[in-house]
Amino acid sequence: MSFNTVFVVTEMRLGGRERVVSNIAGALNEHTEVAIFSVWKRLPFFISKAPLYFDKNSFVQTKSHSVSQKLENKKWMKPIISIVKQLVPYTTLQRKRLDDLVDFLQQNNVKNVVLTDLTSTFAYQIRKCLPDINIISWIHMQPDAFFDIQYKGYKKELKRGLSSVNSLVALTPNQETEYKKYVSKTLFIPNPMPAVSKHLADMSKKTILIIARIDIQHKGLDYLKDLVNYVPNEWKIKVVGSGSPEDEKIFGDIVDSSDNKIIWESAVDGDKLEKVYQEASIFIMPSRFEGFPLTLGEAMSYGLPIIAFDLDGTRIILKDENNDYGILIPQGSVQKFGEEIIRLVSDESLRKKLSSKSMNRVATFSEKEITKEWLKLLR
Questions:
Q1: Domain termination residue (choose one: 135, 155, 189)
Q2: Residues 89-100, mean pLDDT to the nearest whole number
Q3: What pTM did the predictor assign?
Q4: One domain, residues 215 and 148
Q5: Which of 19, 66, 64 has its CA nearest to residue 245?
């Protein structure tokens, strides 16, 4: 067996990054031989049209909707994990799996390896073992969040890894500029958005929707404690997602204190997820940072009007040189966010106007066009 390209992920868990890897790898697999390699040997939440491997002998076909439980999720382990991250390189912690990956790349005559986010640390060792392979780093968030928040413990090791890659894919022009400080050949390829759905959202439902991993800080779910005060009594905020036990407990307390204004359901996929989008009238994204949020594109494909904090990753979707395609709120301004919720729930004509803009916008980021950009890079 041989593959032209292998995408490497920590695991195919529930998440926007994992969904877009599944989609892009699957789309590319229609043009060239592509596989996905998972560092963690856990059943995937997503099944791609590209095959998933744990090693050269483990082709994974079974899907799981259970959310992975990690040591980092246990509160008493956090200080220990923090110290380990400072003292022990990720590549040392994952030495056996890194060896398995290198073996997989060698055995399958792989020409291109795409390292997503934290697995970019593997580039240094891969380069030593396979000097001729084309190594691409694909980073799904802005540099400050990537180095100083999400992977703070591995910042030095990540930068060493980036020094060994041939090129880096960033999700916005601003991120492209910033990452060029680390990899001179950095290029901007946005994530794809789904085509406009044949079954649009029911704009009569009094539901404000959030689809997100239950990650309190990253997804800004703690802001809901104040945002519910702006939601009229007949409306509800519906949150669909799963997360670590610790974050789910914190969010459960937020839901319990919301006077029944927040409805929380576990993560779903496929037809169930489609129904969730269809039964909403507004989509909101209160995240503190995002690279290029896939759920925003999904919501827009169902014709949902959008309110989101103004981040680099949301701005590129909701604004261009000539038009606004949703409502952007200054980062952290909960009052302004709440006022826009009031304005949107009170004005059906504005919701319909933004609904049309959402559907017009998604065509700009079609999977077909984004796949062409990836094919250019890989060839």
A1: 189
A2: 92
A3: 0.86
A4: no
A5: 66
